[in-house]
Design goal:
The chain has helices at about 1-25, 35-65, 70-75, 80-90, 95-100, 115-135, 190-200, and strands at about 80, 100-110, 110-115, 140-145, 150-155, 205-210, 215-225, 230-240. By secondary structure, the chain is of the alpha+beta class. A six-stranded mixed sheet has the order 6-7-5-4-2-8. Strand 6 and strand 7 form a beta hairpin. Helix 2 runs parallel beside helix 7.
Length: about 240
């Protein structure tokens, strides 16, 4: 697995660097107008930004999978899963509105999970972003939180194309892009779901993705939790324009 990850990472970074290099070479091949130079620099900056994002995600995945001296202290940290979900929904609102997608969420319990708030937000945001990216315009993404006395369960359901049989075994593998629509143009690195899996496993939990019988994909996250506090069932939604 380490060898495969290294090979995939090297290929990914080599491709990104080649794109940046070719953009700059093309810009320098002949004298250009100020406007042409500006457009070329903007394209190169976008390429560099994507390369930076890939490296940052690789570092995040390495941090999650490789224990450090600070991990013992971080294991003592916890956060409210409900608060984090609400933050993730708020963070994703621009994309939801852009695609006219309604995001609904329902809670029947309050739970604190053994994950620091930064990693918990990364987990929820990545799952929600994946659902939004794979949902058609005008669809609805549903989020629900429930659980037992010692387990918190998060479910995210989209109305997208679902998971093909050939992709099912690889969706949590680093750099895997089964869907051709997840191209470099869309900014996908194939690391988002791998990071989600690493966060869940580090907390002693699990994550799975299956096809919903009604269509689309269903992501289920199970996390250990402090004793759950029942709350009155509540729901809300992100309004789209």
């Amino acid at each position: 697995q380490q060898k495969r990850f290294t090979n995939d990472a090297a290929h990914e970074l080599k491709t990104d660097v080649a794109i940046v290099k070719s953009s700059l070479q093309l810009l320098s091949m002949r004298q250009r107008t100020v406007e042409e130079y500006i457009r070329g620099l903007v394209v190169s900056l976008d390429d560099f930004t994507r390369l930076e994002s890939t490296v940052q995600k690789m570092l995040t995945l390495a941090r999650l999978e490789q224990p450090t001296p600070d991990d013992r202290e971080k294991l003592l940290e916890s956060c409210s899963l409900r608060d984090v979900i609400e933050d993730a929904v708020h963070q994703s609102k621009p994309l939801a509105e852009l695609k006219a997608i309604a995001v609904s969420f329902d809670f029947n319990a309050e739970a604190r999970v053994p994950i620091n708030s930064h990693d918990a937000l990364l987990l929820c945001s990545n799952i929600l972003l994946n659902a939004l990216q794979h949902s058609p315009n005008g669809a609805t993404v549903r989020i629900a939180m429930e659980g037992t006395q010692e387990t918190a369960r998060l479910k995210v359901e989209d109305q997208g194309e679902g998971i093909s049989e050939e992709d099912r075994a690889y969706i949590f593998e680093p750099f895997y892009r089964g869907d051709p629509s997840r191209s470099r143009k869309s900014g996908g690195t194939g690391l988002g779901l791998s990071i989600c899996k690493a966060i869940c496993e580090k907390a002693g939990g699990s994550i799975e993705m299956v096809n919903n019988p009604a269509g689309g994909a269903l992501v289920t996250v199970n996390l250990p939790a402090e004793p759950l506090e029942p709350v009155s069932i509540s729901s809300a939604s992100v309004k789209v324009q």
